[in-house]
């Protein structure tokens, strides 16, 4: 028994690859996104009243998380558990699941009217660029905010665990781009201070030899994150992250 | 661009028809449900760890809300607005939407191991019997409980607005069934005290002639709700509801 659904639109975000996407919405509070509707669904009436809600649920397809041959795994290794402990796929929010459906509650900043229909402007996005969206629902505090829910094995994470600094080169490059991309400085800081490194990586808070460079950074390992139209290059040592530069892709 | 999804299981609930289903989860806190997995997905490993969460999201198909010819309406009339004001379908939780996807956070009471695989026992259900389920996700307070979200036009409802009483016949019938259906008395009370009558109906808090019977009930209008394996018959006057009997279907 298969169900056939037609995406209503596509999400454009600053996250061009999986690495670096915040592990939950509203962590990088200024990370922007926009939802463009496909022509059939681009009708102003369909979103009338939505502007009264501060947050919306997006239900979407994890379009880059489909496994080869359509196979699914019954167990996954959540990054929150260090990546070395397995739990059932339905006890996780892993993108690799029998039906690759995602849901995120995202801040709705504005609804823009365009000749091609309404466009939703969003922040606090934790979703990959080009993601197909199946549905939009208002976030209803009276039904979605459960004050008594138990956390299970996923208590609130230690947010903002990293101190982020910038090289002169990076600072100049960011300043030059802030006209085109408002709040770019904050966005990069928010993405990095949540520590995008995988928890199971040796790199995180552990075996980095802080003496490899005089400034304490690991001289060998340079991370790259595709963000907007550039490649963000940075290094890490313990809980210190230094942005090196913004490379063209 | 169509997306093809396979339901992972089917939900069995006490709600056999749309009328009477609570308008949000956890209103009728004892309303029971069970999720049976389809054979391909009935694997104990897939739910391992899920028992650590008190609540789960069910993502499901509104299988009885598909419009003829697959047409969708850009605007709907939410019952919360009295049924006489239209809003955009994406500003509502209406089951009639371009992709008939529903989501509810439901209390997880227990995971039972059976020879046919795991079965999830649920309460606080607001979902129609036989609903196909697409996905299960843990409710994560740190990401799903937004303390700052704005309510829009759907503030918390006035719950439990009706006083429910029972005829001797009904009381006896319920007592006889409580062995088979635990908490039946509470479940019926919870369903009715939330007032299942449509807000736009003249019946609600308005033009009922309270003098039509000596007990103040409207003698002509008898409501029926299919619940479990019986038809619940009741009458209403203002905010008083009286259960008459449990008829066989």
Note the topology.
The structure is a homodimer of 249-residue chains.
Chain A lengths: L2 E3 L3 E5 L18 E6 L17 E7 L13 E2 L10 E2 L12 E14 L2 E7 L7 E8 L2 H4 L18 E4 L1 H10 L6 H10 L29 E5 L2 E8 L2 E9 L1
Parallel strand pairs in A: 10-13
Antiparallel strand pairs in A: 2-3, 2-9, 3-8, 4-7, 4-9, 5-6, 7-8, 11-12, 12-13
Question: What does it look like?
Answer:
Chains A, B: Residues 5-148 form the TsaA-like domain. Chains A, B: GO terms for molecular function: methyltransferase activity. Chains A, B: InterPro entries: TrmO-like_N, TrmO_C, UPF0066_cons_site, YaeB-like, YaeB-like_sf, YaeB_N_sf. In chain A, 10% of the residues lie in helices and 32% in strands. By secondary structure, the first copy, chain A, is mostly beta strands. Chain A has 2 domains: 9-65 and 100-144, Beta Barrel (Elongation Factor Tu (Ef-tu), domain 3); 163-248, YaeB-like fold. In chain A, a hairpin with a 2-residue loop joins strand 11 (223-227) and strand 12. Residues 202-213 of chain A have low confidence and may be disordered. At the A-B interface, strand 1, strand 4, strand 6, strand 7 and strand 9 of A face strand 1, strand 4, strand 6, strand 7 and strand 9 of B. Strand 1 of chain A pairs antiparallel with strand 1 (3-5) of chain B.
Task: Give the N-terminus to C-terminus distance of chain A in angstroms.
Answer: 43 Å
Assign the CATH topology of the largest domain in chain A: Elongation Factor Tu (Ef-tu), domain 3
Could you state the order of secondary-structure elements of chain A as H and E? EEEEEEEEEHEHHEEE
CATH architecture of the largest domain in chain A: Beta Barrel
The CATH homologous superfamily of the largest domain in chain A corresponds to: YaeB-like
| Number of E-state strands of chain A | 13
Largest sheet, spatial ordering of strands of chain A: 2-3-8-7-4-9
Q: Which value, in Å, is the CA radius of gyration of chain A? A: 19 Å
CATH class assignment of the largest domain in chain A: Mainly Beta
- Strand composition percent of chain A: 25-35%
Shape of chain A: globular
Characterize the main sheet of chain A.
6 strands, antiparallel, barrel
| Average pLDDT level of chain A | 88
Number of alpha- plus pi-helical segments of chain A: 3
> In the residues of chain A, how many domains can be counted?
2
Structural class call of chain A reads: mainly beta
Largest interface: chains, residues each: A-B, 67 and 67 residues
* Oligomeric state: homodimer
What share of the residues of chain A lie within helices? under 10%
Unreliable stretches of chain A, pLDDT < 50, 5 or more residues?
A: 202-213
């Amino acid at each position: 028994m298969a169900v056939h659904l037609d995406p209503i639109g596509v999400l454009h975000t600053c996250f061009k690859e999986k690495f670096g996407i915040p592990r939950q919405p509203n962590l990088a509070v200024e990370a922007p996104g926009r939802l463009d509707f496909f022509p059939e669904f681009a009708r102003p009436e369909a979103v009338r009243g939505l502007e009264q809600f501060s947050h919306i649920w997006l239900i979407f397809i994890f379009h880059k998380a489909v496994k080869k041959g359509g196979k699914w795994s019954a167990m996954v290794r959540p990054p929150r558990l260090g990546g070395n402990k397995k739990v059932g796929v339905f006890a996780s929010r892993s993108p690799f699941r029998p039906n690759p459906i995602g849901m995120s509650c995202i801040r709705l900043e504005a609804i823009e009217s365009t000749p091609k229909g309404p466009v939703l402007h969003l922040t606090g996005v934790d979703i990959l660029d080009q993601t197909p969206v199946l549905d939009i629902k208002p976030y209803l505090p009276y039904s979605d905010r459960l004050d008594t829910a138990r956390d299970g094995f996923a208590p609130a994470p230690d947010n903002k665990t990293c101190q982020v600094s910038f090289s002169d080169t990076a600072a100049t490059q960011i300043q030059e781009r802030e006209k085109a991309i408002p709040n770019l400085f904050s966005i990069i800081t928010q993405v990095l201070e949540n520590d995008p490194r995988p928890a199971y990586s040796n790199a995180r808070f552990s075996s980095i030899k802080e003496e490899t460079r005089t400034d304490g950074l690991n001289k060998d390992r340079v991370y790259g994150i595709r963000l907007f139209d550039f490649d963000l290059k940075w290094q890490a040592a313990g809980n210190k992250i230094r942005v090196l530069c913004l490379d063209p892709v």
